[in-house]
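Researcher: Quick sanity check before group meeting.
Model: Go ahead. Protein one:
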Amino acid sequence: KSERLSEPVRDMFSAIFFVAIGLMIDPGILLQYAWPIAVITVAVVLGKMLSCGLGAFIAGNDGRTSLRVGMGLSQIGEFSFIIAALGMTLQVTSDFLYPVAVAVSAITTLLTPYLIRGADPLSLKLATIMPRRVARVFGMYGEWLRSIQPQGQSAVLAGMIRRILLQVGVNLALVMAIFFSGGYFAERLGGYMSEWVGDVSHQKAWICGAALLLSLPFLIAAYRKLKALSMLLAEMGVKPEMAGRHTVRVRKVVAEVIPLLSLMVIFVMLAALSASILPANELLLVVALVAALVAALLWRWLIRVHTRMQIALLETLGNHQENSGH
């Protein structure tokens, strides 16, 4: 329902956009820079056809689908002349770049429907003139990709690994957002804290500690997911034929080492990204010890907090999908 109601607004702004683009094109400039515009247009169309089509083919699509992808993405959008306008405003590019970017964007946009329409006939034409050996190599490549795709139990395990990695990535993204916010608002927060915390290093310690405490539910969730992943990898990778009677011990070591090493890498990355709010080494050690103590004492409570947030998010997304369906 919402999509149907928003379609007129979308169409109106689309029309405004294309009319605005048309008004920005000066025919005199098109004639003045005809050769650069023609060369760049051909380079963009051919370059994107080859790069996007080749990428689609490498990903496992057939030749016709890959050609459709390449010819359907053979245009540059409005972002190109936004960048050109920004460069001209900052005086880091010459004046001729902006009208050329607008002209190339408009021409490639107008050419796209015709390229999409001609994708299937062109693919059939290429199939008839392509040497058999080349076609056989392409076919063997597609069969090889299909043969290495996980099937059965392997597909289930691959799906589990992807879900775990996705959940770890989401939690780490939230942690990074918290630390980025702390660094971004550090100066303003320091001004508020200056009345009762005068030392800048102590202010950074409070800000860093607050960011770390807010991140604890997500860090614990990432650690638990990484531990589950390491246990899964240990079961899959450490076979009794290889480890013999030490199989259980080796699996335990792998299951413990992988999440610990991952957390070390995560903390090093966070330290590099949040260098602006890191206090002195002594205060940083105190902050880390306090955070570790809080995590140890409130481990189960932090897990419940993260679980409740996850359930609330899923319910919100579910309600949104239901409303969209109605």
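Researcher: Fine. The other one?
Model: Protein two, sequence then structure:
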Amino acid sequence: MVQEKSCIYIRTLGCVWFILWVSLIHETPESHPRISKEELSLIRQGHEKKPRVPTPWKSVLTSVPLWALLAAHCGETWGFYTLLIQAPTYLSNILHFDLNENGLLSALPNLMLSTVSIFASILADHLRKRGIRISIIRKTLNTIGFFGPAICLAIVAFVGCKPVVIVALLCLALGLNGFAFSGFIATHVDMSPDFAGRFYCM
């Protein structure tokens, strides 16, 4: 019954979203019926085409900082997705939570991740305004985002089957992982704004 209701709500929300999208979003600013001339002029000024610079692949592939960044990216991605995929399984199979009845419990760690990652980005901006070097900010937030979850998960192994404590630790683990979004993930843009997309995809 709960699943049926949630499906109806999600479908309805999807339909409302689609209607809003079709009515409010347009292919280009020029095709938008409600854009003012001033706003259109401002948008055009901000989108002056820059000459395309070829990717300096030799410099890229021999860059030690870039390889360190890629190693951090691979490690974090593996840990993040392992936790993301296995946490609900752990809650269901080991702690015997019925996730169909309590979907909020399964979503709680991800909610923490979203909330903390927003807070971490605000914190990073605040620290930059105070004059702290960007490399120190990124490394500090990245350290919190990597070691925080590791410590939380290590503690899970020693608390026994205490569901409330374990759920709190899983929430804290994914929450602390949110600091990494203002750590290594933002470093791609710091290192090379023109090639950040390519670096991120590597």
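Researcher: One line on it for the slide.
Model: The radius of gyration is 22 Å.
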